[in-house]
Amino acid sequence: MLSQGRDELRYYQFDSFDHGLCQAVFTRRGGVSPEPWASLNLGGTVGDDSQRVRENRRRALAALGRDPGTVYDVWQVHGVEVAITRAPRQPETPHLQADAILTDQPGLTLMMRFADCVPVLLHDPARKVAGIAHAGWLGTVRGVVLATVEAMRSQFDSNPADLLAGIGPSIGPDHYEVGAEVVLQVRQAFGADASSLLVGRGGRMFFDLWAANRLQLERAGVTHIETAGLCTVCHNDDWFSHRAEHGRTGRFGAVIALT
User: Which of 55, 151, 176, 194 has its CA 20 to 30 A from that of 34?
Assistant: First the structure.
């Protein structure tokens, strides 16, 4: 990923993506929120003041030349529901519960929020479709990226071989310790491949979310995949991390839009 900046605000972009696409994963820098949400918190349900969140959102979108009125976002619930949208979400309209969003409309800006879970950005330059998915451990074992690619195929006639995918900053494999329940579900979801995703160290088990989502993209037929390799725990000064900050933190944003 390539780091970009405007004043104090900083964000990263996948360098393998097509130039006809607006895409960014924002760091926590450049906003107006105080601790523990300092400073570019885009999460509206973590205790921060709503006016500060709106200002942070305005700043982030302005850095990309996008209007807040073009945004479509969802209530993320660690599932596999894929929202297909062709219009912005109006402020008075309740959020749809979903963990992936797709559109073929260049006037829309798709946005999701993260604090250790994996942002997965997708672009079909042939069919001109853009999407974003939210993959925590539960969404990963349930197959949210598989569901997203399948929705691109069924709803937009996308060929998975044409897709460009980006696996964004999230908790890395060295820090994502998981318990027996998660280990069991990883083994059930990935079968023989689970051994390459679960690493035992010092009597503890760690789950590689980056490799797991890459594997699922490959299983779905996606071959053009860029992994950021940026750990939100290792780089807590740049990224909100639910685990590193013991649940008291903000949410960084990921955005994708057709241009």
Answer: 176
